[in-house]
Structures are given as structure tokens and as C-alpha cells.
Task: structure prediction
Amino acid sequence: MAILKEKVLEIHHWTEKTFSFKTTRDRAFRFKNGEFAMIGLEIDGRPLLRAYSVVSPNHEDHLEFLSIKVPNGPLTSKLQHIKLNDEILVNSKPTGTLVCDYLLPGRNLFLFSTGTGLAPFMSIIRDPETYEKFDEVLLFQTCRFNNELEYGKSIVRLVERDDMLSQFVSNKLRFIPTATREKSEFSGRVTDWLKTDKFLQVTGRDLNSVEDRVMICGSMEMLNDFKNICLQKGLKEGSNSAPADFVIEKAFVD
Ligand code: A2P
Result:
């Protein structure tokens, strides 16, 4: 296991709480779309690393990450001030459970996220194989405020405009962003939608173990709530050793 040194190529501050950045990518760094890596900075002569999902798909020659800004967070309080050409440390051994191979074949793929839990799904929706495996991909992100939903919207727009990807996607991808603390096109927690008719009204579907496969990424509480709903609907949890109907992973917070 090696720690690679990458250079910052681009930085975009999306809200007071979130930013994304691109870095160079060592050819030795290989990952499955949906996986995370330990990345960070050298602080006081030592590497300080945290788990970050790779947002960019594995066919691209750069890496992209989405981060929150925690005022007193050991890493993000410094990482939020990175500048072009700064050095980012990237552990060469990525891992994770949000990988399409860890799900059984199905018709529909539901990707449920809150906050920066969106990150792993940004590489999955940019993977042509996702659309070879599934007829419909429904991506959800719930945030408190509308401005936090802009990053996901911008990536979905990129997918739609990408000549190569749009051929695979061809109307199979739907993004359903919801805000909980201000008015928005879609409002409320998706866990609440799933307990009423609202989910069926918006998506035209209810979750079932025959057709639907699910990935979940967010806080511990959010994971538990979605997991219980999936279990109640008869879906089984999968892992890399035993693929099944849904997989979960905590969104990493500093
Ligand atoms: P809410 O505003 O109702 O708390 P946070 O910033 O606290 O991590 O939350 C991010 C988003 O996820 C918020 O919109 C929040 O809704 C929503 N959320 C928090 N906990 C859950 C949960 N257990 N199930 C579904 N959504 C949740």
C-alpha cells in the first residue's frame, strides 16, 4: 500500500459547507466506481487522511472529490483552503461496498443519499456499465437547503451533455433532489415518502425485491431508517462476498 501524491487541478466552492476539487491521477491508482479512498494532507510532517468517495468515474484520467467544511475538523478545516497545484495525499488502495457487482441483477437501481452521501453515486451514474445492467437509475439526494443540491444537478447535466455517456444513459437516469428546510420542487425526507403514497406518486414505483436494487449512503441514522424500510419490503442486504438486493455505506464526515 502506497501513499500517492497528486496535484490539485481545480477547486469549486459550492456552498458555505461544501466544495469539490479535481486532482491529477497516478496510473497506479485503480478503483471500482462507487469506492472510497483515504485521502488528505501532510500536516506537521505527518499524513492526515480521511475516507472520501471518488466522485469521478474510473475511465477519467483525473480524480474528483466532494468535501464538507467542518470549522474545527482536523482535516477539512485545512483542506477547504487548498489552492491550485497543492499536494493531496491519496492512499493507493480504495475499497467500499457501494459497487454494482455487489448487487444481484435487477431492473431498476435506486440510489438514496443525503448530503455528501451523494459522492459515490457521482461515479456510478457516470459508469456506462451501470446502464448496461439496469433499465432505470433513480438518484435521490436530500439536503436541508436548495443550494446544497446544485453539485448533483451540475454532474447530471454533464452526463446529459457527454457524447459518449449520453448514448448509454439515453433517458435511463432520473435525478430527484429534495430539500427539507425550504421550499423546493421536491420536499421532505425520502424515508417519509416511502412510508406514504408519495414515493409511488413521484417515481411510479414501489420498492420490491424482484425488480429493484438499492444503494444507500448518508448518516448512521439515515442508513438505519432506509435499511429498515428495505428489509420491511423484503429486500436483502448484500456485500462483496454475497451479492443481494441492497448495499449501504456511511457518508464519511470529519
Ligand atoms: P431534515 O432537515 O428533516 O433533518 P444533515 O444535514 O442533518 O446531515 O441532514 C441532511 C439531510 O438529510 C436533511 O435534509 C435531513 O432532513 C435529511 N435526513 C437526516 N436524517 C435523515 C434520516 N434519518 N432519513 C432521511 N433523511 C434524513
